[in-house]
Design goal:
Layout: E1 2-3, E2 8-13, E3 16-21, E4 24-28, E5 30-33, E6 44-47, E7 53-57, H1 65-79, E8 84-93, E9 96-103, E10 106-112, E11 118-119, E12 126-129, E13 135-138, H2 146-151, H3 158-174, H4 178-187, H5 189-194
């Protein structure tokens, strides 16, 4: 069902978003962009706690100012992935840990449940998922300052280390040709690691 943005309002009740539609208040458990890549600014779906769709806001820009600001803030929290520039502290908490970091979007603090929260499927990049589902990224582990690297050395995904050793072992054969090494570095993050 398409929702008329001029006839609904969004508010925050504690940690939950609520939508008032035709005088009835609905708890919004999840917000989702229908076309996050091709058309991120239109067609936002509102889902209730049972997973049913409350409706779709076709043009969120027509919401009242407060509702639009709230929607944009919630969507940013879901879809925007801050890039970690520095890790200030990692404090063990039970089986997980509490992180304090500096990113390209300012300072953040969050908790992760364990080592599995760090994904290294595209080394040297690392994606981190906190306990609330918020994502953060490290563009290159090896480009972090030494103190930041040391703080998470015990949590590193195996693929990050394997890629490092692989590129180092390959580095000897390519070191004699600057041109070929530079070319490989520009096309693959993994090869760049071996050149550091």
């Amino acid at each position: 069902m398409n929702l008329d943005p001029t006839a609904i309002s969004l508010t925050k009740n504690g940690e939950k978003v609520e939508a008032v539609v035709a005088g009835q208040t609905h708890t919004v458990d999840r917000l989702a962009r229908a076309f996050p890549r091709s058309n991120p600014d239109e067609f936002v779906s509102l889902m209730d706690p049972e997973g049913h769709e409350i409706g779709i806001i076709e043009n969120p820009q027509q919401l009242d100012d407060a509702s639009r600001d709230l929607l944009e803030s919630e969507l940013k929290a879901i879809y925007f992935i801050p890039t970690i520039k520095k890790i200030r502290s990692v404090t063990p908490k039970g089986t997980g840990s509490f992180w304090e970091i500096d990113t390209d979007d300012g300072e953040y603090a969050f908790r992760i449940s364990g080592r599995d929260a760090l994904k290294g499927d595209e080394p040297p990049a690392i994606e981190i998922n906190d306990e609330n589902g918020k994502r953060y990224q490290i563009e290159s582990y090896w480009e972090l300052d030494p103190e930041s690297r040391d703080l998470i050395a015990d949590l590193l995904p195996d693929k990050i280390l394997k890629a490092r050793y692989y590129t180092r072992s390959m580095g000897g054969s390519s070191r004699g040709s600057k041109g070929s090494g530079r070319s490989r570095g520009s096309s693959s993050g993994g090869s760049m690691m071996g050149m550091r």
